[in-house]
Amino acid sequence: MAMLLNSVRSYPISPARAVQFAARSLSTSSQQHAQAQTKSKKTLARPGVKNIVLVEGVRTPFLMSGTAYADLMPHDLARAALQGLLNKTSIPKDAVDYIIYGTVIQEVKTSNVAREAALGAGFSDKIPAHTVTMACISSNQAMTSAVGLIAAGQCDAVVAGGVEFMSDVPIRHSRKMRKTMLSLNKAKTLGQRLSLIGSIRLAHLSPELPAVAEFSTAETMGHSADRLAAAFGVSRLEQDEFALRSHILAKKAQDEGLLQDVVSFKVPGRDIVSKDNGIRPSSMEQMARLKPAFVKPHGTVTAANSSFLTDGASAVLIMSEEKALAMGYKPKAYLRDFVYVSQDPKDQLLLGPTYATPKVLERAGLTMNDIDVFEFHEAFAGQIMANLKAMDSDWFAQTYMGRKAKVGTPPMEKFNLWGGSLSLGHPFGATGCRLVTTVAHRLQKEGGQFGLVAACAAGGQGHGMVIEAYPQ
Fold first, then answer.
1. Known catalytic membership, residue 136
2. Are residues 125 and 418 in contact, defined by beta-carbon separation less than 8 angstroms?
């Protein structure tokens, strides 16, 4: 990390003011909307390779944990997303071949949340379902597993999705207490039971609280983000500006009705929820008052430039193009090439987009200039800015990636124009589907042909996917 710090700090970007940053993005995006015609680029269709399409994507409103969803369970949110997908597509409940869901912090009672949610949503009980976990790219994994099943000829229609519920997470007894309780369960005589109860000490009652931390390094993700930002010389000002940009763009997209993947959800005992509630454009002055959240007192990552703990679920319908057309659907986009990458979780925990982007572009035979829409997961503003600097560094590409040259930086006028995880929220297991659906909708709205999704994940992993607009 020290080597990174010394060699990349000189990256030549001067921070622009956030409001100008956002305004530039907004004016450019409106120009693109005005053009709204697909450029005539080559398609990525290949002879003998099955075309796989995104038919539809939906999500519940993403809410800050502890708000309107607080009394639910994860399968309730997943069920709501699946029902939203059924309502939007009118697909017969027995026409889906398989269901896959991503989640990170599992509710013990519904460990295969895909199955419980599918049964609750009214899908046929003959449809198999399984749950995957890959940290923040869990629903990415759900989608690409769906692509694999269709490509292999196993299925024609698969529902993929993800859910995360941070309002209620499992809190365990200490290991000593768990051992005692299990032994009590097996004790055959009153004497054995009394002996075991007598062995309990006050310290045994201390609970094990969950933490968003790496098992291999014991470091929280926020701490890693702070170190990464320092290594790449990302200032607090740059981070706050980027976070403010995310909120401004998300608010504009919400007000203009562009977040059309959001489906309303009647929360039992409460009102209907129809909007994300974490979008809060602030001011640079207000953001500057916040203290560092992880590395104190000199860190640069704060609550305002980090994604917040979020409850939410998403679902997408993925089909072979042939099946989709036979059933009368107009697909939104082709799902083309994808890659997964993995790095050192200590110093490169959040650099997944930097590693995934050049790999997936090479697989697709594209360059950065071919991409019309970029949607990157925003875990922390510092993480995004560090990735942008790494992607624009020949030194980093040569030293760490074994590449001759940098891949280059996405132009900000094409980047996360409807907000991102910093403002919309980040339910760990559900974000991937939001990213892919947003790319499909932006390609339609802006008249582009190719979109790129990229995301980092715990464990030093990452994902990249190329999406092609379906001819309008």
1. yes
2. no
